[in-house]
Predict the structure.
Amino acid sequence: MADSASAPVRVRFAPSPTGRLHIGGLRTALYNYLFARKHDGDFILRIEDTDQSRYVEEAEQDLMRALAWSGLEYDEGPGTGGPHQPYYQSQRSGLYQRFAQKLIDSGDAYYAFDTEEEIEAMRERHASDENPSPAYNASTRMEMRNSLSLSEDEVQQLLDEGAPHVVRLKIPGNETVRFEDEVRGTVTFETGGLDDQVLLKSDGLPTYHLANVVDDHHMRISHVIRGEEWLPSTPKHVLLYNAFDWTPPTFAHLPLIMSPEGGKLSKRDSNELGIPVFVTDYREAGYEPEALLNFLALLGWNPGTEQEIFSMEELIEAFSLDRVGVSGVQFDLDKLNWYNEQYLRDMDIEVFADRLREHIAEERLPITRERIVAIAGLVQDRVSKISEVMTEHRYFFEDPDSYNEACVEKRWSETSAALLRDLAEAYEQAPAFDRDAVEQGMRTVADAHDVGLGKVIHPVRLAITGRTYGPGIFDLVVLMGRETALRRIDAVIEELG
């Protein structure tokens, strides 16, 4: 393994552009970023786009937007450059072909000319209850059409004719592959169950496995920090490193992010449980990137203290791979909402207003900066996400089109209309419409009718917001202004009588 004490720390986030960035991918990027910054190392972005059949053009744009939004800046990669350009694997195919040939020349890889039908027939021949899907490896390769079973002349003739073929890694039979994982300790695999991995496909492009190992070596990656779904591939990578006589990097395989109902967090969870699975969804839903990163950092890593709220600087200082857990960890949306609330509560009011203005601008609502700041002051401690201002507190921007039935039943009485009529008259006659005038008007009406102040406040709030809970009523009515307040009072009286 790489000597972390002497070699510079260099880590990479290497997604495939096959779809939008998954929330688990963002956590992987975050852990790589934290580790690099902790050790004054480099954080590299590499686009692993060798599988052109699954390439999605918009996926790379989504990835770049997600990383920019989250603030995880990379030191080398697309758009940034660096000493190991290009950072797209599809643009490095000549390098992979050269090293595949090196493996063929050393006897560690071979040409295979088998069709898919021939491979399937082999698997059917050897299938059993104990081994339902036999591997293409040391136990079966000599009965197949490859450069190990055919004569040199036959192989050369097939190559000269341009016969479709792949290059496979010659995995040794009945050996134990052992490596140290920073998260899982010593990991062992038996080669008997491994396929002779395809390294170059019939189109000449590499598979993930060859390109991954060649690039990690040439980009001098010291630590490979990735999801545990790649753990079964690691023995093949170790064997490739051995075949090239290269020192493998240090491996760390992160635990899965699990659905609350078990299993890996998937698109189905997004549909059924309302848990977004793509980073874009969190951005559009109004989550703060700092809150999401804080939440993700502790979704698999334990700081060893009771601290829950971390700045990025604190996360970098505290992070270590030896405190990353092995077991999958369940995604808790309520906990994420709690994190987001904490960040909103501590946010500078001007910053909150700036974020709110972005949402308002999307709907092209005509509103002044001063009013946005005033709205922010009333709702900052009442929302889990800034986007909720546009949904849960829609009354700031338009009159209610309905009144909450439960609130009406509980708070609207046979005297409410009379109380509001008198209040409207008081507001019309008030020389000024400030907080003192608004509060005094309500108290005066309550005293005149010999009722508690709540008998006035709740119907007023119902008129203004369509419900009977929300920000302080006096400040809220002042912000709405005299004209809007009177219009909404008239409307609720006409609607509810």
Q: What stands out?
A: DSSP finds 21 helices and eleven strands in the chain. The first helix runs from residue 23 to 38. The two ends are 79 Å apart (CA to CA).
